[in-house]
Design a protein that fits this description.
By secondary structure, this protein is an all-alpha fold. It has helices at 15-46, 48-68, 72-81, 83-93, 104-123, 139-144, 146-161, 172-221, 229-249, 253-278.
Length: 279
């Protein structure tokens, strides 16, 4: 089989250019993570409107600097990072209470995906660059091996959080709607945002290691609202795994399947099947 060129790879900067860009880039990454974390802590523990205001400020800052730069890779990165505060802004501002909680992730993810499409079009990213491709010649059985990994992670997260199940039973007529939402909105949608758009956009600027750490940190920050340090550590570890397999394969398929399996296990399988068997 011919060797496949990796889709996601850093630009080959000269040593001088790398050195000149390294400190501002690291400062940007650290400052962004700190700002998003501060906004999420405000929402979870202090005052939700204050946290919302911080996210709006982050969004405006990213848009302002993205519109002023003359570097295409930086513009694509900053416009892509706008999605992070947008996720929380949509989740707080949309009238979700008027709909069953089963549909909340889909209602939030719908405008987010429109924003992802807009950012990707603006930056000129292809579907392959976003990871929307299959990674291996015979992917099905290899991808299937990731399902039990996700189920185990979901069971562990359930032991930490013990959330309300997304359905009342495992009857097909009861679980099909949350199953679709968890697969498409949280599995596919979140992976397209973080491991697709953001990981590709930041990879050009930071390289694989720093990009994976940045994207995973932002992904974990948006879970601060669960108010659980053990869950935050678990989410960070899972995010590293999702980012790594996406980077190595050049495809979102593995991360999407694992992430969807985590949430299906967390909100359906573990509370409705495994927990009753162990009690």
């Amino acid at each position: 089989m011919a060797e496949r060129r990796p889709v996601i790879a850093p630009l080959a900067f000269s040593p001088l250019t790398r050195w000149q860009r390294r400190l501002p880039a690291i400062s940007l990454a650290g400052g962004l993570v700190a700002a998003v974390a501060a906004a999420e802590v405000c929402i979870a523990f202090v005052n939700a409107p204050l946290g919302l205001g911080l996210h709006v400020g982050i969004l405006l800052w990213l848009l302002w600097h993205g519109s002023r730069t003359d570097q295409d890779d930086v513009r694509g990165m900053l416009f892509g990072l706008v999605i992070v505060p947008l996720i929380r802004i949509f989740s707080l501002c949309l009238p979700l209470d008027q709909f069953p909680s089963t549909y909340w992730p889909a209602l939030v993810m719908a405008p987010v995906l429109v924003s992802v499409w807009t950012a990707a079009r603006t930056a000129g990213y292809s579907l392959e660059e976003l990871g929307l491709t299959l990674p291996w010649p015979a992917p099905l059985w290899q991808l299937a091996l990731l399902v039990p990994v996700g189920v185990a992670l979901g069971a562990l997260e359930y032991a930490i959080l013990q959330p309300t199940p997304a359905a009342t039973s495992l009857a097909p007529s009861t679980i099909w709607q949350p199953l679709v939402v968890l697969t498409l909105a949280t599995g596919f949608g979140e992976e397209l945002v973080f491991r697709g758009l953001l990981q590709h956009a930041t990879m050009w600027r930071f390289g694989p290691l720093r990009s994976i750490l940045l994207v995973t940190a932002l992904f974990a920050c948006l879970h601060i609202g669960y108010r659980s340090a053990p869950d935050l550590a678990l989410v960070f570890g899972a995010g590293l795994f999702f980012s790594y397999i996406t980077w190595r394969s050049g495809s979102l398929a593995g991360a999407v399947i694992t992430h969807a399996s985590v949430n299906i296990s967390l909100f359906l399988l573990t509370p409705l099947l495994f927990a009753p068997l162990l009690s």
